[in-house]
């Protein structure tokens, strides 16, 4: 990623959709892409600052700078009592009462770096800049998944609330029917009270589900830096494309894909390349740089009134040949290479673990959809019908309701786990956010 990518990314995200609410301030459902757009609009600059993107570009400018020249001016032969009076030099008036004047020297010095040191510094700073950009992209990868986790946690709480509301509605219908049946003597008072107690328990579950939704909204709002009206949004029931990242590929193919795409590994390799350039630079410090000096002298007390001069100065590495710098740079290079190797091992483990989790979560959801959901609903509905006709006991009716609730809770959890497993696999592969899919801004809530 280069500077152009950073600027275009920021521009797209700043133009992306933030919050859309109707004029009455009612709850608005937002997609995962819209939530991500909100997050990056409010956090992108902070993330970039944290990973020193601007500083890395400044360091690159410093590394490529050519040393400034030095201008020197000297005035010599100052003697207040004499000042070259009566000098026999060609440029002097030989009158003993007239001063010849002071000598003036003007010099210009320039440091010339040898052995390609400046080029090595430029290369080193270039790798440092690339590493900082890779760190930034890695932060985007990690934070994207953090936002998705909070988003799907909210979606799960919403679905639990919907289920709790459905059960409350069912108990309300049954309770109304039981009032009539109690008056007609079709059911006993204890049976009536038992259903009433289950209805009250269902209402308590609904209250708890509502509280859980609000907590999940607050958690997501914290990640989004708490925008206004943050508790008026809800998550859309939107699931990732199951065939989007090549889960059908073999483990080795997925690992190879991750090793090519993961920005954290790229950053470690770029830092290793930087350390290699720093080692070469340290080794070349033993080649001394040359300072060239040229100037002009005007000395009235000298037979040559005006003259020029040229000089060269070179530090002699007699006692110290920068071995300490070379050794330190060699250690840094070895550490950078070890860090890259460790990151590669971690990536392999991430991909294998994420793939196994995805395969398991996907199979669990398929089992629910292959008949378990229909069976739970059929048992619940048939039990309600049988109970309303007096063909089954209240215990069987309550057990069927509880079984249906448990199955649906497990199903919602499985769906959320499947979505999280998908994005965990995507994160392990280093798949970057597609900026082209970011929605266009319509209304913005600050």
Verbal overview:
By secondary structure, the chain is α+β, with helices and mostly antiparallel strands. It folds into 2 domains: 348 residues, Up-down Bundle (Outer membrane efflux proteins (OEP)), CATH 1.20.1600; 79 residues. The protein contains 9 helices and 6 strands; from the N terminus they run αβααββααβααββαα. The strands form 2 sheets. It has a 4-stranded antiparallel β-sheet, with no helix packed on it. Strands 1-4 form a two-stranded parallel ribbon. A hairpin with a 7-residue loop joins β5 and β6. α4 runs antiparallel to α7. It is elongated. The N terminus and C terminus are likely disordered.
Task: Give a quick precis of the structure.
This protein is 63% helix and 9% strand. The protein has 446 residues and is of the alpha+beta class. The chain has two domains: 3-67 and 118-286 and 324-437, Outer membrane efflux proteins (OEP), CATH 1.20.1600; 68-112 and 287-320.
């Amino acid at each position: 990623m280069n500077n152009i990518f950073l600027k275009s990314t920021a521009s797209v995200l700043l133009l992306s959709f933030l919050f859309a609410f109707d004029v009455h301030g009612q709850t608005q459902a937002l997609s995962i892409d819209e939530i991500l757009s909100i997050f990056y609009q409010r956090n992108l600059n902070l993330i970039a600052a944290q990973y020193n993107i601007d500083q890395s570009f400044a360091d690159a400018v410093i590394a490529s700078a050519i040393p400034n020249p030095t201008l020197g001016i000297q005035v010599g032969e100052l003697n207040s009592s004499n000042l070259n009076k009566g000098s026999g030099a060609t440029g002097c008036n030989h009158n003993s009462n007239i001063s010849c004047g002071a000598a003036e020297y003007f010099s210009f010095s320039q440091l010339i770096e040898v052995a390609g040191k400046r080029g090595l510094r430029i290369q080193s700073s270039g790798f440092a800049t690339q590493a900082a950009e890779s760190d930034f992209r890695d932060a985007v990868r990690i934070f994207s998944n953090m936002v998705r986790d909070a988003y799907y946690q909210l979606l799960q709480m919403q679905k639990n609330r919907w289920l709790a509301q459905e059960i409350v509605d069912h108990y309300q219908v049954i309770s109304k029917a039981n009032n009539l049946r109690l008056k007609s003597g079709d059911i006993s008072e204890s049976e009536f009270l038992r259903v009433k107690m289950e209805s009250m328990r269902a209402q308590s579950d609904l209250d708890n589900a509502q509280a859980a939704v609000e907590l999940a909204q607050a958690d997501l709002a914290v990640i989004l830096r708490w925008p206004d009206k943050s508790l008026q949004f809800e998550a859309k029931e939107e699931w990732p494309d199951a065939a989007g990242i090549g889960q059908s590929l073999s483990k080795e193919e997925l690992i190879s894909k991750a090793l090519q795409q993961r920005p954290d590994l790229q950053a470690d390799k770029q830092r290793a390349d930087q350390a290699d350039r720093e080692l070469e630079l340290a080794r070349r410090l033993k080649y001394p740089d040359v300072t060239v000096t040229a100037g002009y002298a005007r000395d009235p007390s000298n037979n040559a009134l005006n003259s020029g001069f040229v000089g060269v100065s070179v530090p002699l590495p007699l006692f110290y040949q920068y071995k300490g710098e070379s050794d330190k740079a060699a250690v840094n290079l070895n550490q950078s290479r070890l860090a890259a190797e460790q990151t590669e091992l971690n990536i392999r483990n991430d991909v294998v673990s994420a793939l196994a989790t995805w395969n398991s979560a996907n199979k669990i959801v398929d089992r629910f959809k292959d008949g378990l959901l229909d069976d739970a609903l059929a048992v619940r509905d048939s039990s309600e019908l049988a109970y309303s006709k007096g063909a089954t006991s209240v215990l069987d009716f309550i057990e069927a309701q509880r079984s249906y609730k448990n199955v649906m809770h497990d199903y919602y959890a499985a769906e959320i786990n499947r979505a999280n497993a998908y994005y965990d696999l995507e994160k392990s592969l280093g798949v970057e956010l597609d900026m082209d899919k970011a929605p266009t801004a319509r209304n913005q809530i600050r």
